[in-house]
Amino acid sequence: MDIFQKCFEFKDAEIARQQGYYPYFIPFSGGDDTVMTYKGSSKIMIGSNNYLGLTHHPKVLAAAEKALKEYGTGRTGSRFLNGTLDIHEQFEAELATFTGKAAALIFSTGFLVNQGTIATLLNKKDAVIIDKLDHASIVDGCRLSEAKIYRYRHNDMKELKSILASLPRDSGKLVIVDGVFSMEGDIAPLPEICQLSKEFGARLMVDDAHSIGMLGPRGNGTAAHFGVTDQVDLIMGTFSKSFGAIGGFIAGDTPVIDYIKHHSRGLIFTASLPPAVVASTRAALEIIINEPERRQRLWDIGNYMRGEFQKMGYNTSTSETPVIPIVIGDNMKTFLFWKMLFNEGVYANAVIHPAVPNDSARLRTSYIATHTQEQLDFVLDKFKRIGKKLGVI
Question: What domains can be seen in the chain, in order of their start residue?
Answer without folding.
Answer: 58-290 (3.40.640.10), 292-390 (3.90.1150.10)
